[in-house]
Amino acid sequence: MFVDVAFPISGFQTFTYKVPVNLVKHIEIGSRVRVQFGAQKTNGIITGIKQKTSYFGKVREIRGLVDDVKIMTPELWKLIQWMSHYYMTSVGQVAKAVLPKNLSTRYTPPKNWMVEPNPIFADEDLKKTKRRAPKQYEIFKQILTADHPLKVSSLKNNSSGVLASCRGLEKRGLVKLFEETSLPDVTGFTFDPIYKKVDFNDHQQEAVSQITLAMDSNIYTPFLLHGVTSSGKTEIYIESVRHCLDQNRTAIILLPEISLTPQIAGRFRAVFGDTIALWHSKLTQAQRSWTWKEICKGSFQVVIGARSAVFAPLKNLGLIVVDEEQESSFRQDSPAPRYHARDVSLVRAKYEAACVVLSSATPSLESYYNHLNKKLTYLHLPKRYGGAKYPQVHLVDMLNENDESGKLGQIFSGLLQDKIEARLQKNEQIILLQNRRGYSPVVRCSDCGEIVMCPQCKVALTFHIKESQLICHCCGHFETQRWEVCISCQSPNIKYSGTGTQRVEAILKEMFPKAIVERLDMDTARTAKGLTSILKKFSNGEIDILLGTQMIAKGLDFPNATLVGIINSDLGLHLPDFRSGERIFQLIYQAAGRAGRNTKLGEVVIQTYSPDNPVIKNAAQLNMKRYYNIALSERNELQYPPFSWLAKIEIIGKNQTSVELLSKRIAKTLKGDYKGLKILGPVPCYLEKLRNHYRYQIVFKSIKEKDVNGKKLHHFIQTNFMDIQKKFRIGQNRINIHFDPLSLI
Ligand code: ADP
Ligand code: ZN
After folding, report:
1. What tens digit of pLDDT does each residue of 314-360 get?
2. Which position among 56, 153, 584, 682 has the lowest Cβ density within 10 Å, counted as fewest Cβ atoms?
3. Pairing of strands 517-520, 545-548
4. 145 φ, ψ to 5°?
5. Residue in 191, 235, 239, 271 to alter for ligand 1 test, most ligand atoms within 8 A of Cβ
6. Distance 204 CA to ligand 1 centre (A)
7. Checking DSSP bridges between strand 40-50 and strand 111-117, what pairing results, if any?
8. CA 332 to CA 310: how far, in whole Å?
9. DSSP states of 45-92 as a string?
C-alpha cells in the first residue's frame, strides 16, 4: 500500500511513501505520519491512499503515526481541502493551521472540590450544628445562599481548613461534596459562572423557534441574527445550544476575541458546565493537545473560542454561532491560510448540514447585503431586553470647544466634563473610548518638522509615558532615550502631539482627582489575567472610570455603567480604505451600546470635528439602516464588496528596487483578463515599509454582475499564480495571495 503525503510547505505537490504492513490497518486519509523528507525527519499528512504507484524513484517507508487517536472527521477533511483550494494554500499548510502540533503530550487538568447543600437535609441536624459546630454553621450559611455549587476554596472562613469543615458538614448530612475537573480555560481568564433566570420576550421567542426549527430539519440554514445592543443575543445562543445538545448534536461558538468577552464564557459555563471546552491562543501547547484529544473522544459537546475554534473536531455538529460577525479578528492575514472564520464556518456548516447564526448589532455590510438578497434568514431583535431604554446621545462639535485663551484642541468638551461629574456624584460608572494607545502618537520638531520615525517601518513612533519609551505600534521596536533635541536641526523645541489613552488618563486624574480611573488597552491587558482583573474590578464597582481602546467597546455588560464618552470619534475615519467608514460606525455604535443596559437611563457623549460626516451623524442617531444604505450605494458606485470580489497580491522583500521590479514584471505578464475584471497597481502598500521589508501590492476587483460566484476571479488568480516559483524569479522576495481581503491598506 502507498500513500500521498503533503507537507507544510507552500508548494502544492505531494510525495509518495510506502506503508509498512503493521500500519496498514491504521492508515486513513487525514492521518498524520512521521517520515523522512529529504534530509529531515518531519511530519506530513496523508492526502491519498493507493495500492500501486507509478512513481519510479526510490519510495521510502513511513516511520510511524503522529497521533494515537483518530483526529480527523470526514467533514473536517473536506473543509481542509476546500480551504486549500479557495485560499490557494497547500493542504500541508492548511492542516498545520487546523491541527494542534502534536497530541502526544501528557497533561492532566487539576481538580477542584465543589460543595452544594443536600436538598433533603433535616432541620434537626442544622440546629445541632449551630449549637455544636458554629464555625461549620457559618460556612453552611454561605453554601445555602448560593443557587449553584460553590468551589470549596472560594468559601470565606476565619480559620483554615474549609475542606475539613465541609467534610464535617457532609457527615452531618447537610451538604454534598464532589470533585470537579478544572478545565484548561487559563485560570482567571473567564468570569466565574454567571447564573440568570431567563424569560424570553416575543422577539426572542421567535428567533429561538426559527433556529430550533431549522436545526430539527437537518438542513443547512444560515441566519443573520440582528439584535440591537443588550437585546439578549447571548441568551439566544444559549437556548439554541441547549436545543442542539438535546438533539445529541454539538456546537461551536466563535467570539471575536475570547479574552475580551469573559462574561459570555462565564454565562455558558453556568448553564452547560463541563460540556464546554474553551479554545484560544492563550492555551499552552499541552492544554491545546489535551483539549483537542478530548474533543475527538467526545468529552465536550460545545467549543467556545476565537477564530480557529471553527476547526474543532466535534462530531455531529449542529450549530455554529459567530458572535459580532463583522469583527476583523475573524480574519487571519498571516501566515497562510489567509482565511475568514465567518466564511469558513458557512462552508463547514454546509458540509455538516448544520445551522449558522451570524450575529451582531452592526452586521458587516456583506452579511447585511446577503440578508437583503435572502441569502441569509433574517432574525431581528429590535428592542433592548426588559424595557432598558436606548441611551440618549449628544454629539459635540469640538470646533466650538476652546479654552479660556480661545485655543482649540481640547481633549474634553465642557459637556463631557459635566456629565462625568454628574455620574460620579451619583456613584454611577463611566466608560471612555479613545481608540489609540500610548501618550502621544507623533513626536515632532516644532522648528523643522522632523518626525521621530521607526527605523524598521515607515511610521511615526508613539511616545509612551508610563514605559518612558518611544514605541513602534507596527513592529514593537522601542527606544528608551528621550528626544531632547531634534536629530535633524538640533532644535530643542520638541513637541509631543496627538492623544493616546495615557494622555487621556493623565488629564482625567487631574480633572477628577477623587475618581478611580483604570486604563484598558494592549499595554495594561497584556496578560489575560490583567484584563480579567480590570473587568472584574469594574464589575464590582471598584473602578469609577474605565478608559480604553476599542477593547472596551465589545460585548461587556455592566448595569451600573450609565455614561459612555467617545473622546475622538474621528480616529481612523479618514484612512484611505473602503471599509474605514463602516468600521468607525460599528465602533461608535457598539461603544454607545455599553451605556444604560439596565433600568438606569444611559447617556453617550460623542466628540467629533466632523459632525456632518454621515458616519458620525448616523452613528450618533444610532441609525444603522440609514448609514448602511448610504454605505451600500457608495460601495456600489465604486464597485467594492459586496458588489465585487476582491483579491490582493502582496510582493514583499528587503530590497526596494527588486520588489518594485518584480511587481511590475508580474503585472505585465498577467494573462486571461475578462470583462468585469479591474487590475489596480502595482503600487506601494499604505504601510510601505514594515519590519525592514518593502511592500507592493496589486489589487484585483471582479464585478459581481459579470462574475456571480467569484469563480472567474479565482480561476484568473489560479492560472496566473499557481506555480509562482516557476513563473517568476522571485529571489529573496515573497508573494502573498489574499482572497477577500478585509482591507486594501
Ligand atoms: P446582547 O448580547 O444582545 O448585547 P445580552 O444577551 O448581553 O445582550 O443581554 C442583555 C442583558 O439582558 C443581559 O444581562 C441578559 O442576561 C439579559 N437578558 C436578555 N434576555 C433575557 C431573558 N430572556 N431573560 C432574562 N434576562 C435576559
Ligand atoms: Zn516599526
Report:
1. 999 999 999 999 999 999 999 999 999 999 999 999 999 999 999 99
2. 56
3. parallel
4. -75, -25
5. 235
6. 10
7. unpaired
8. 12
9. EEEEEES-----SPPEEP-EES-SS----HHHHHHHHHHHHHTT--HH
